[in-house]
């Protein structure tokens, strides 16, 4: 996998981010690639290594294989991770990230001219680029399946064919993938019905619930968050920057991608607000510029932020003083804070947002209010915080009165 010897780890991640940026990858795509690279770097750091070890990279690749063969991940995710490992190893070895994917990412099959025209008409709607990519994959997969059944257009395609396709994907893909494909098919048939391609939108059929396995991730205790913040040296340039970053996650619950994208013009000092267009949802949200967050931002911007030809708030410490490339950089900040106070090492900057959401729920704030504060349109995105609200969950526990124990003497 590696042909060169003694490739230093120091600076490798920053160089990889810069190379991906030059290739024109989107923020979300870069985040996916960087997360895999971070895992590889972390495995080296855990063993105190300063140079890349091909055996560790191969071992991580074998871990991915084992997860796939044991049923832990599906075929698509397994293939994607393997490609990302190879991409990072290729960059480390040669400085080359490989060719940029086609702008039609997700459309790996050739369709008949009629199906291709319908697909592109549908996808020309006002969708987020990442959503459009996922939708394209689903729509092309569906139309490709119809072609395998002998169809070249939507004529004579009816209820029975849609039902058969749903059975097909339920056997082939993981529940999470089936859930997403069902949502996109529902949007597609709304378009097909409105455009006269289908006799029905089949909204009732496509409204079934997919039961997906969800992990209950423990929340970060308040005392641990306090330790993380206290560990930062606020007298240094790096410390001033990192403290402001951590407060934005702790106090306002901003996602890492939104902190990285924060501009100087997003801070309204007069009204005391921070206005953010969320990368995940595309929604605008106005958050209060609390005194502690405001003071931290002011201290960094006035006393530590390098002079640079960019309006990004947070910049690299070392030259060139460009904006942070991806949200993965904040994972590194969070990981350093964890290591400084002896907490388990983690790159999950999102833990801060989760802790804030859980704290709000525990203090009696409704899920609807939390969703509004976090800029989520769907309260389902907030409901996971209920799973770790142990005090209120105790109130839902049913008594065992009247249930006699079996299998032994009292």
Low-confidence stretches: 100-107
Strand order of the largest sheet: 1-2-3
By DSSP (H or I, 4+ residues per run), the number of helices equals 16
Q: How far is the N terminus from the C terminus? A: 63 Å
Number of strands: 3
Strand content: under 5%
Q: What Rg do the Cα atoms give?
A: 25 Å
Shape: globular
| Major sheet characteristics | 3 strands, antiparallel
Structural class: mainly alpha
H/E element order: HHHHHHHHHHHEEEHHHHH
Mean pLDDT: 84
- The level of helicity is 40-55%
Plain-language structure description:
- A hairpin with a 6-residue loop joins β2 and β3.
- This protein has helices at 12-22, 27-46, 54-69, 75-94, 113-123, 129-148, 159-172, 175-194, 222-230, 237-250, 256-260, 291-303, 328-340, 350-362, 367-374, 390-394; strands spanning 267-268, 273-277, 284-288.
- It contains 16 helices and 3 strands.
- It is globular, with a radius of gyration of 25 Å.
- 52% of the residues lie in helices and 3% in strands.
- It is mainly alpha-helical.
- The N and C termini lie far apart (63 Å).
- The chain has a 3-stranded antiparallel sheet.
Question: In short, what is this structure?
Answer:
By secondary structure, the protein is mostly helical. It has 16 helices and three strands.
Keywords:
410 residues; mainly alpha; 3-stranded antiparallel beta sheet; 16 helices; 52% helix; 3% strand; globular
Write the layout of secondary structure elements.
Blueprint: H1 12-22, H2 27-46, H3 54-69, H4 75-94, H5 113-123, H6 129-148, H7 159-172, H8 175-194, H9 222-230, H10 237-250, H11 256-260, E1 267-268, E2 273-277, E3 284-288, H12 291-303, H13 328-340, H14 350-362, H15 367-374, H16 390-394
Antiparallel strand pairs: 1-2, 2-3
Helix pairs in contact: 1-2, 2-4, 3-4, 5-6, 6-8, 10-12
